[in-house]
Design goal:
Layout: H1 4-10, H2 15-37, E1 49-50, E2 56-57, H3 60-73, E3 78-83, E4 90-91, E5 98-106, E6 117-125, E7 146-152, E8 156-161, E9 167-171, E10 178-182, E11 193-195, H4 206-217, E12 228-229, H5 235-245, E13 248-251, H6 266-279, E14 283-285, E15 305-308, H7 310-318
Parallel strand pairs: 3-5, 11-12, 11-13
Antiparallel strand pairs: 1-2, 3-4, 5-6, 6-7, 7-8, 8-9, 9-10, 13-15, 14-15
Helix pairs in contact: 2-3
Bound molecules: 6-O-phosphono-beta-D-fructofuranose and manganese (II) ion.
C-alpha cells in the first residue's frame, strides 16, 4: 500500500514541502498515541487538573500545541508557525520557506467524552517575510500550498490536499505510517443532510433562518426533500462526514457578539477546510464570498462558514440574494 510520502513523491510535490508536512504528521502521530491511551495518559480533561502525584497536568490541547510547535521549530524548512493556542506567531528558522498554521486539537470539548477530535493544518509560503510578525501570515487561503486534517476517531485518518485533489490515508498502528485508503475523494453535489448548531437559531440572519426552516419543512416544503441533521461539534468530524457522504455544514454569522462574525477561525479552520472542500469538488462560502478569497486581517479572525455539497451550498446562498 502507498504511504503518504510515496504518494507525494509520485505527485512531484516539492521535497521541502513534503518535509514540512512530515513534521505535522510526526506530531499528529504522538497526539493520536496520547489520545488512545485515554485516561491512562493522565492528561484528559478540558481544565488543568492535578494528577495523583499532585502535579498540575497540562490540558491535552496545550500538549498537542507544544508537540506541534517543538517538532515544527526543529524542521529547517519551516519559517514560522501560528496556532489557535498561541496569541502571537512563533518564528522558527531563518531560511525556512513555509508558514505552518494549525488548530492543534479541534473540537477539544469532545475529549472528555471519548468522541472524535482532530488537528487542522494549513501551509503557506513565507515569501522571505519576517515570520515573527503577524503581517507575513495574513495571506488569503488561495496561497495555501497544502491543507488537511488528522482525525482521531475509531481510526486515525489524514485527509490532505496539495492542490492535486483530496486523498485520505489511514494510520497503520503497526507500521505507524499513513497509508492511502481513499484516493481522489470527491463530494457528491446533492444530498439530504445538514449540520448546524440549531440552538443558535434565534441569532441567525433572516436568510439563514428561512433556509433552515425550509430544510426542516421536508418533502412538502420548498426544497421537496426530507433532510437529516447531524452535529458532532468538532469541525473535523462534521467536515469529514461531508467529504465522505456529502451534506452541508454551517456555522453562519450570528448576532451574539458584534465583534465575532461567526465562531470558526479563518486561518486554521475556514481556509484549510475550504481548500479541501473545493479540491473535492464542493463549495465553501462566508455567505457573501468564497472563504479562500477573504483577505485576513488578523491571525485569529473569525469567519462565517457555509460549506459542502455544491448544489446544497448554492441553494443556501440563494436565500440571501
Ligand atoms: O473549534 C471550534 C469548534 O469546536 C468546532 O470544531 C465545532 O464545529 C464548533 O466549535 C462547535 O461549536 P458549538 O460548541 O457551538 O457546537
Ligand atoms: Mn477548532
Amino acid at each position: 500500500m502507498q504511504t503518504v510520502q510515496q504518494l507525494l513523491q509520485n505527485n512531484n510535490v516539492d521535497t521541502k514541502l513534503v518535509s514540512a508536512i512530515d513534521a505535522v504528521l510526526e506530531a499528529s502521530k504522538e497526539i493520536s498515541f496520547l489520545l488512545q491511551k485515554g485516561a491512562m495518559s493522565g492528561i484528559l480533561g478540558s481544565a488543568e487538573q492535578e494528577n495523583v502525584q499532585g502535579e498540575t497536568q497540562k490540558k491535552l490541547d496545550v500538549i498537542s500545541n507544544d508537540l506541534l510547535k517543538d517538532i515544527l521549530k526543529d524542521c529547517p524548512v519551516v519559517a514560522g508557525i501560528a496556532s489557535e493556542e498561541e496569541d502571537f506567531p512563533v518564528p522558527a528558522n531563518k531560511d525556512g520557506e513555509f508558514l505552518v498554521i494549525f488548530d492543534p486539537l479541534d473540537g477539544s470539548s469532545n475529549i472528555d467524552i471519548n468522541v472524535t477530535v482532530g488537528t487542522i493544518f494549513s501551509i503557506l509560503p513565507s515569501n522571505g517575510g519576517d515570520a515573527s510578525v503577524e503581517k507575513t501570515y495574513l495571506q488569503s487561503g488561495r496561497n495555501q500550498l497544502a491543507a488537511g486534517y488528522v482525525l482521531y476517531g475509531p481510526s486515525t485518518l489524514l485527509v490532505m490536499t496539495t492542490g492535486q485533489g483530496v486523498d485520505i490515508f489511514t494510520l497503520d498502528p503497526e507500521t505507524k505510517e499513513f497509508v492511502l485508503t481513499d484516493a481522489q475523494s470527491t463530494i457528491t453535489p446533492a444530498t439530504q443532510e445538514f449540520a448546524i448548531n440549531m440552538s443558535n437559531q434565534r441569532f441567525w440572519a433572516e436568510p439563514m433562518q428561512n433556509y433552515v426552516a425550509d430544510l426542516l419543512a421536508g418533502e412538502t416544503g420548498k426544497l421537496g426533500k426530507r433532510y437529516n441533521m447531524r452535529w458532532v461539534a468538532a469541525m473535523v468530524a462534521d467536515v469529514h462526514r461531508i467529504i465522505h457522504r456529502g451534506g452541508i455544514f454551517m456555522y453562519p454569522w450570528d448576532s451574539r457578539d458584534a465583534k465575532k462574525p461567526g465562531k470558526l477561525r479563518l486561518m486554521y479552520e475556514g481556509n484549510p477546510m475550504s481548500m479541501l472542500v473545493e479540491q473535492a469538488g464542493g463549495m465553501s462560502s462566508t455567505g457573501e464570498m468564497a472563504i479562500m478569497d477573504v483577505q485576513p486581517e488578523t491571525i485569529h479572525q473569525r469567519v462565517p462558514v457555509i460549506l459542502g455539497s455544491k448544489e446544497e451550498v448554492e441553494m443556501a446562498l440563494s436565500y440571501s440574494k
